[in-house]
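Much of what follows relies on a compact textual record of a protein's fold. Here is one such record, which you should read through line by line:
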Amino acid sequence: MIDTRLYRWFLPLIGRRRPVRRTPESFRPRGTSSRVSRLAARYDADVDEALQRLWPKARVYHDREFARDRADFLLVVRGRGVMVETKVKSDPGLFRGSTLPPLLDRLQRDGRRLVVLLNQGDPTPARELVAEKLGDKARIVVWSGPDQDAELWSAVEELIAQESRHPL
């Protein structure tokens, strides 16, 4: 079969006059730059390794689909679950937690525990937001590597030690 559209034959000779979209709109990443996406993927892998290292007998479940109202990981230690949400910032500024409210609303209804792991920055404004919604059932930890495992371990163990999911 021969391509009868002449402009395809002449394009290499005269150059392209308009930009050609090579990937469909549905496959393009939205909302984040590729650098942040790579950082987030690497950070999630590091967090997964840390959870396996700190709690070798625990079960770690991953949420493969992107959703604002679901956490990235579910860590089940000694029969008790803790949701783990990872947040990646490309700059060391304040973390306000503007993307957390859908997740916090869902966890508030469900009575679940949450640890938010932030790669860098000052989480003070987000801590206030999380404390307002979930109270003592949530922690925000700045974790960027194995040297900060103690903070991660203590935050998760504090949440696991809580007796009940639902207030009396």
About this structure: Confidence is low (pLDDT under 50) at residues 21-31.
